[in-house]
Design goal:
Elements lengths: L1 E5 L4 H12 L3 E6 L14 E4 L5 H7 L5 E4 L6 H6 L1 H21 L4 E7 L22 H20 L2 E7 L1 E3 L2 E3 L2 E3 L9 H6 L7 E4 L11 E2 L1 E3 H14 L4 E7 L5 E2 H12 L5 E4 L8 E2 L4 H7 L7 H11 L4
Helix pairs in contact: 1-7, 4-5, 8-10
The protein binds nicotinamide-adenine-dinucleotide.
Nicotinamide-adenine-dinucleotide binds next to α1, β2, α4, β5 and β7.
């Protein structure tokens, strides 16, 4: 069975490509390399360099595929505030092109990278899939718009779709070719930033007076390998004319301080930090309810924070 992986040269996509090949799938990748890297791709994957915005390229990339895992897109929250049109164009319009071409090619299965950013500030915790969706950034708005598009495409054209709403993805996978490391620019994710913290460039702690046990924000982290396991399971439970939305996190939260403590243990050195003011729109606690993932996908994450920090540190050659 051939899977088209859009965005397969990116951090999460490249991990998916590796695991799909290991599990015996045939893999095509469509990526414009705007934030991905061709050297992340193994030679067994068929690579089409191009954009999801071009219907001819998408058509070529879909050749022979039975399903799509759709990672391609822009994913920096801050950049989305500066460039909302770019985010709408690439994420929403790009997905529309992809869905139209899938319909023409009679390819009816898709798993999509949605995000916890669709929920915005939570009213209850842990966050279930039925929580209100009030995104606080254009990025979150584009993910929500795509989820809504998938719902319509499923009912109108028989698409079988699953949106996985990821919380904070972390960790790394080691392959025969080395670690598939996170290479975002700028890097906005806490774990790599904590690991790279130096006295000259200390990692910022945005608020230490939150209503949490240690005063720092609490987030839910999921190891990238556990995340891809959820995608492979999602492929197996897709249902025609049905769109499911499923949270993917670890179901427990770690505070910024706990992440720093974990990094100190792993690196065996102090992590310099800089106390900074709270950021607008940052909720105190963001933790996923993963009951639906457990029941629909028969999935549970198996890697904890220490493993995520250790694997990230190894991938960054800090160990
Ligand atoms: N990393 C996280 O914590 C996280 C959390 C929630 C959701 N997500 C979503 O997961 C997906 C993958 O995230 P990532 O962290 O691997 O990001 P990434 O930037 O490493 O990967 C995105 C990939 O998409 C490609 N791409 C971008 N625009 C494209 C276009 N127009 N046509 C073809 N390819 C294009 C990029 O070159 C890159 O390889 C994204 O959709 C992101 O929004 C990520």
């Amino acid at each position: 069975m051939r899977i088209l992986v859009t965005g397969g040269a990116g951090y999460i996509g490249a991990t998916a490509v590796e695991i799909l090949l290991q599990q015996g799938f045939d893999v095509s990748v469509l990526d414009d390399l705007s934030s991905g890297f061709a050297d992340a791709l193994p030679s067994q994957a068929r690579f089409i360099e191009g954009t999801i915005l071009n219907m001819h390229t998408v058509r070529e990339a879909l050749t022979g595929a039975s399903a799509v895992i759709h990672f391609a897109g822009k994913s920096l929250v801050g950049e989305s505030v500066q460039k909302p049109d770019l985010y709408r164009d690439v994420n929403v319009h790009g997905t529309r092109v992809l869905l139209e071409e899938m319909r023409l090619a009679n390819i009816k299965q898709i798993v999509f990278s949605s995000s916890a950013a669709t929920y915005g500030e939570p009213t209850t915790t842990p966050i279930t899939e039925s929580a209100p969706t009030q995104p606080t950034s254009p990025y979150g708005e584009t993910k929500l718009a795509i989820d809504q598009m998938l719902t319509k495409e499923a009912s109108a054209h028989g698409l079988a779709a699953i949106s996985l709403r990821y919380f904070n993805v972390a960790g790394s996978m080691k392959t025969e070719r080395g670690w598939l490391r996170e290479r975002h620019n700028p890097e906005t994710h806490l774990i790599p930033n904590v690991l790279h913290s130096t006295a000259d460039h200390p990692v910022k702690i945005f608020g230490s007076d939150w209503p949490t046990a240690d005063g720092t924000c609490i987030r839910d982290y999921i190891h990238v390998v556990d995340l891809i396991d959820a995608h492979v399971r999602a492929l197996r439970v897709l249902k025609d004319s049905h769109h499911a939305i499923i949270n993917i996190g670890s179901g427990r939260g770690y505070s910024v301080r706990e992440v720093i403590d974990s990094a100190q243990k792993v690196l065996e050195r102090p992590i310099p930090t800089l106390d900074s003011p709270r950021r607008d729109g940052d909720p105190a606690v963001l933790v996923a309810s993963i009951e639906l993932a457990e029941s629909l996908l028969n999935w549970r994450p198996s890697r904890d924070l220490a493993q995520m920090v250790t694997d990230t540190a190894s991938s960054l050659e800090l160990l």
